[in-house]
Amino acid sequence: MPPEMDLVKVLGKGTYGSVELFSHKQNDGSLLYNAVKVMDSENYGSIDQEFRILSELRGCPCIVQLCGNSLVQGTDCNGRKVYKMSMEYAAAGTLTNFIQRNRTKLSDSVIKDFTRMILNGLVSIHSHGYVHCDLKPDNILLFPIYDKETWNCSYELKISDFGISTRAGDKSDCWRIDEPWVGTSIYMSPESVRDGTTVEKTLDLWSLGCIVLEMYTGKRPWLGFDKHVKSLLLDKKAPEIPETVPCDARQFLEKCFARKPEERGTASELLLHPFLIRDEKMGSAAAAGERTGMVLRLRNPPPILKDTPTKPLKLKAISQKPQQFKKVSNKPLKVKIVPPRPRRSDFVPVQ
């Protein structure tokens, strides 16, 4: 982290540290922003582990990227020793922020695009032998991408916060008998409650299902049952899927919420689920932003037009003077062509 970086604001605070926004001037005079995770020395093990995992995941799609080759040791405002890790800054905040801003449910295409990106991130994590262990909307960052011509906004999603990530098959340091959670309780799978001594990749797929459900409903999983999550999971219950969720999305969620972990498959297999591949075959666009442009929707397909019009032209002969029986007019008749009425447009603007 360059020494000339200036603190802009605190982005968030947690039990063991904070994330702060810093800026510094580049050679061309423009400002570059970085998010910096700050942890006290007592939690050095957590930030050191996260730094090592993110170093392994450099260049991987849909994973937040480091800015720097080492942790930086410093002091906070109280003179205590802290460690700092510099990362790229997500200007659009977290997926939680995005869901809250869009109080009505997100469109089906946006949810599918976001789900694909999260799964691509999980493929990278799992292929390196890790389980994220705390996948939730708070830990998914949104990077805005603006179209230079229209200024419409789309988003790239990236997974962050690897502080409690674990090697697949290893024991979790977070699990305790009185609090049997590997990560955040409402996003945890039944097997993580029953036996948290080993962590498998399928845990992340259950958490993904909770996130997809939250994008459809705008509400956290187990809302109203927060205090009973442990007993519900031990009873092999899954969050309720409303009838309003489309059929293909429901099937995808049921796959994520399979009681037997092996029946959830893998992140790579879920990317091939019909819920995610049907739109791609039709040329699905990138994730839409909160501002969308006008599009044209075809209400009814028009009939196939042939070279000749379906209705013949009407000919109306008009003479300048009434014709006489004994004398034929020398002036030519005027012919007026009346075209058929123009066809009503079948295209209607849709917001």
From TrEMBL:
PROSITE patterns, alphabetized: PROTEIN_KINASE_DOM, PROTEIN_KINASE_ST
Keyword Transferase: yes
Keyword Kinase: yes
Protein kinase domain location: 5-276
Annotated segments matching region Disordered: 329-351
Gene Ontology molecular function, alphabetical: ATP binding; protein kinase activity
GO BP term, example: signal transduction
Domain of life, per lineage: Eukaryota
InterPro entries the record matches: Plant_MAPKKK, Prot_kinase_dom, Ser/Thr_kinase_AS
Keywords, in A-Z order: Kinase, Transferase
Protein's UniProt name: Protein kinase-like domain superfamily
Species the sequence originates in: Arabidopsis suecica (Swedish thale-cress)
